[in-house]
Design a protein that fits this description.
This protein is mainly α and 117 residues long. The chain contains three helices and no strands.
């Protein structure tokens, strides 16, 4: 019989590993000499942010599995809702920090300057 607690633990460990490996990857990429003129610090911040975002998504999946399969009570659903709201807010603000625009503005073109007709 499948023990969903073990599955949840495995997904949580995977989420933490994604974050840690993202940090290691970002640090290695930062330390590796690259072409001159690249803003290496900005690239480091973006790499770290992407690792955190991906890890948060995996951790949200673990919370959903826990709520649906392990402890499906109203209290756990409410706690899940709060966790998802907080992590979604964190993901959106990280996305804003990385991309310079909100996730729903992906297709938007930069505004033209006021000098353009």
């Amino acid at each position: 019989m499948l023990d969903f607690r073990s599955v949840v633990l495995g997904v949580e460990v995977a989420g933490v590993l994604v974050i840690v490996l993202g940090l290691v990857f970002a640090a290695a990429r930062f330390a590796w000499p690259g072409p001159a003129g690249r803003d290496r610090f900005r690239q480091l911040r973006q790499d770290v942010g992407r690792g955190i975002l991906l890890g948060l998504e995996v951790l949200i999946a673990a919370d959903i599995i826990r709520t649906v399969a392990v402890d499906p009570t109203m209290d756990s659903v409410l706690v899940l809702g709060m966790i998802v709201l907080i992590r979604t807010f964190l993901s959106m603000t990280l996305e804003m920090e990385l991309e310079g625009r909100w996730p729903w503005q992906r297709g938007a073109q930069p505004r033209a300057s006021s000098d353009d007709p």
